[in-house]
Design a protein that fits this description.
The complex is a heterodimer of chains A (about 60) and B (about 625). Chain A has about 60 residues and is α+β, with helices and mostly antiparallel strands. Helices cover about 40% and strands about 30% of the residues of chain A. Chain A contains two helices and three strands; from the N terminus they run βαββα. Chain A has a three-stranded antiparallel β-sheet with strand order 1-3-2. Chain A is globular, with a radius of gyration of 11 Å. The termini of chain A are far apart. Chain B is elongated, with a radius of gyration of 35 Å. Chain B has 20 helices and 22 strands. Among the domains of chain B are: about 120-150 and about 150-200, Calcium-transporting ATPase, cytoplasmic transduction domain A (Distorted Sandwich), CATH 2.70.150.10; about 305-325 and about 440-560, Rossmann fold (3-Layer(aba) Sandwich); about 330-440, 3-Layer(aba) Sandwich (Calcium-transporting ATPase, cytoplasmic domain N). Classes of the chains: A alpha+beta (about 60), B alpha+beta (about 625). Chains A and B meet through helix 1 of A and helix 4 and helix 9 of B.
């Protein structure tokens, strides 16, 4: 399953790091952060709890 | 500027004024330190906070950390002015960058301003403005002059002109009348149209295009990936080098019995840190691709990703499909092959026989004949449904039509099989030859190939199912390098395969088709370009690059845009890394001071960003 989120990133390097962080979150199959359109596309693993996973992604991204 | 940017601007102004003022005042010792801490905190508190957060979260190496260490270090060495100035210029650079990025973001969304906000739904004679998403297939919508068509459909009432420029980059308006298909995103210019929708909003052209363009920059190119990897290793390497620069030379000097000069070397290490900031690279490359894709879409060229833009710039071979790509798919007399009569006579007789017919094939024969038809010479016209027509012209009994008609006339001659349409003719029951009708070359095709040649792309191929003779004629006229005719659809893939396997290492092959029955080749080629995609879903799905109108000149234009974009990317990579390396070396040996370091960081970034924005400017013909 795929979902798109609107995000706020300051710099392109941070976007790359957030992408890394999101990818390494459990339940996320793939993630792409698009700095230019300020969007994050997340592809979830089969059967993953979207809300819980996103919270985890958010937590990991905050660290960046 | 948005609120956040304005706040930064105010902070910049305040701290700049303070720094200049304090630098002029004859302050000494702790007072001087305390005074300079005010502008430093004003301008740098968020950077310091981020750097601190980074250390706690063990994400140490980023720009914030570099800047924090460099400025704190400079202040510790007593270089207050420089410490604050570095922070100040860093913030100016960041502000400029976020302004430039925001600006191009807006520019590009303006270019793609085709999203309709509402649809005028007609129910029981009442018109209501609703969200396009809520309109079901088969509903009637009303589009007034000046409004966008929100959903694909068919005109049921009204006629007028449509402005398709937002979709195709074509400024000439298109005429529509009742019964015509219209696609969403066009602007209705002059009259009220009632349209019966044939698709849902989400499936309509406008939604598909927006979706494609918005997701295009998510598909990363090799150069973008290179930069992410580069930044990942670069910052730690620079930090450790700076540490080494601060520690190793003084220690060595101590060992060999010289003065250690700690201050000098720490200063050099700090200069090193300021220079090394990777932001110019990291920002300018995705910005260039984004601007390039945005600029191209304003010309009706949709590129599905940065990676395709990169591939497009390396195209050396272009394979064309013939029908619908280089030719109109519209018909014209191509060949007249008479038996025992003259060419003119045959054409004249067929034109006369067809003169009462409204069939498009008949019409193009009359057009080819070009003279006034004297209808008094024709008697006894009979249309034979599904076969052709027969008529008595002067003293001749003329029958013309397809092979079935010839069979009913018991004509024994072997009839020529051809891909185009053939009108066979019999005079007085005897076979008299045929007229071959085939496709017209598009008026821009010749120019399109000339433009490709100008770009150094000489290996152009044409694949077609048409007869060799017809294909050769078209190819000759256009100056095609190699023609493959009389192909079955599956042969096309084989030939594309052969061309791709014969190309050089860094060369790519593009296939251009109209997307109707060449999906396999479109996906096999390194890059598939679909033309005339207005309304054709299959093409949008299968191709990597979609040309919204069916003008073949856009191919050369797309390649030109991609090359310009890549040139900018390489310029920026070369320029930024080059300047930084030179400054790093100069900093390490002590020639460059912190002021030069600030230029190497902020100056390079500003220049790289301005260069990147250039990709947005597309010069038309």
């Amino acid at each position: 399953m795929k979902k798109s989120y609107k995000i706020d990133v300051d710099c392109a390097n941070c976007a790359n790091k957030m992408e890394e962080a999101a990818k390494n979150t459990a339940g996320v199959k793939d993630a792409v952060v698009n700095f230019m359109t300020l969007k994050m596309n997340v592809e979830f693993e089969e059967g993953a709890e979207v809300k819980a996973v996103m919270q985890e992604v958010l937590k990991n991204c905050k660290k960046v | 500027m948005n609120k956040k940017q304005k706040r930064v601007l105010i902070r910049i102004i305040i701290s700049a004024v303070l720094v200049v003022a304090f630098a002029l005042l004859p302050l000494k010792g702790y007072v001087r330190f305390a005074a300079f801490m005010i502008p430093y905190i004003v301008i740098g508190y968020d950077i310091l906070k981020k750097a601190f957060k980074g250390i706690i979260n063990r994400q140490v190496f980023d720009e914030n950390f570099l800047m924090a260490v460099a400025t704190v270090g400079a202040i510790a060495l007593g270089e207050y002015t420089e410490g604050v100035a570095v922070m100040l210029f860093y913030q100016i650079g960041e502000l400029f960058q976020s302004y430039a990025v925001g600006k191009s973001r807006r520019n590009i969304s303006n270019l793609m301003d085709i999203r309709p906000d509402y649809a005028n739904l007609e129910t029981d004679g009442e018109i209501e403005s609703v969200d396009p998403d809520e309109v079901e297939i088969g509903s009637i919508i009303v589009v007034k002059p000046g409004e966008k068509i929100p959903i694909d459909g068919e005109v049921v009432e009204g006629s007028g002109m449509l402005d398709t420029s937002a979709l195709t980059g074509e400024s000439l308006p298109r005429e529509v009348a009742s019964g015509d298909e219209v696609i969403s995103g066009c602007i209705n210019l002059d009259s009220v149209l009632r349209i019966k929708t044939t698709k849902e909003f989400g499936e309509s052209t406008v939604s598909k295009i927006l979706d494609m363009v918005e997701n295009a920059s998510s598909k990363k190119s090799k150069s973008e990936n290179f930069i992410s990897v580069f930044a990942k290793y670069y910052t730690p390497i620079v930090c450790y080098s700076a540490l080494a620069l601060a520690v190793v030379p003084p220690v060595v000097r101590l060992v060999i019995g010289m003065q250690p000069l700690w201050g000098t070397w720490v200063y050099r290490a700090l200069t090193f840190l300021v220079i090394s900031c990777p932001c110019a690279l990291v920002i300018s490359i995705p910005l260039t691709f984004f601007a390039g894709i945005g600029g191209a879409s304003s010309r009706g060229i949709l590129i599905k990703g940065s990676n395709y833009l990169e591939t497009l710039s390396k195209v050396k071979n272009v394979i064309f499909d013939k029908t619908g790509t280089l030719t109109e798919g519209r018909f014209e007399v191509a060949e007249i092959k008479p038996v025992e009569v003259s060419e003119e006579k045959l054409l004249e007789l067929v034109a006369y026989a067809e003169s009462f017919s409204s069939h498009p094939i008949g019409k193009c024969v009359i057009e080819a004949y070009g003279k006034e038809v004297d209808k008094t010479r024709i008697t006894d016209v009979k249309e034979i449904g599904g076969h052709g027509v027969s008529a008595k012209i002067d003293e001749y009994e003329v029958s013309c039509g397809n092979s079935k008609l010839m069979h009913t006339l018991e004509i024994k001659e072997e009839l020529r099989e051809a891909e185009g349409t053939v009108i066979y003719v019999a005079i007085d029951g005897k076979y008299a030859g045929y007229i071959l009708i085939s496709d017209v070359i598009k008026k821009d095709s010749k120019k399109a190939l000339d433009n490709l040649k100008k770009l150094g792309i000489t290996k152009t191929y044409m694949l077609t199912g048409d007869a060799k003779k017809v294909a050769d004629k078209v190819a000759n006229e256009l100056g095609i390098y190699e023609v493959h005719s009389e192909l079955l659809p599956e042969n096309k893939v084989d030939i594309a395969e052969r061309i791709i396997s014969s190309q050089g290492a860094n060369e790519k092959t593009a296939f251009v088709g109209d997307g109707i029955n060449d999906a396999p080749v479109l996906s096999r080629a390194d890059i598939g370009i679909a033309m005339g995609a207005m309304g054709s879903d299959a093409a949008i799905e299968a191709a990597d690059v979609v040309l919204m109108d069916d003008n073949p000149k856009k191919i050369a234009e797309a390649i030109k845009i991609s090359r310009k974009c890549l040139r900018i990317v390489y310029e920026n990579i070369g320029f930024a890394i080059g300047v930084k390396l030179i400054c790093l070396v100069l900093g390490a040996v002590g020639i460059a001071n912190m002021w030069l370091a600030i230029f190497a960081d902020v100056g390079v970034m500003v220049i790289a960003v301005l260069n990147a924005v250039r990709a947005l400017i597309i010069r038309g013909e």
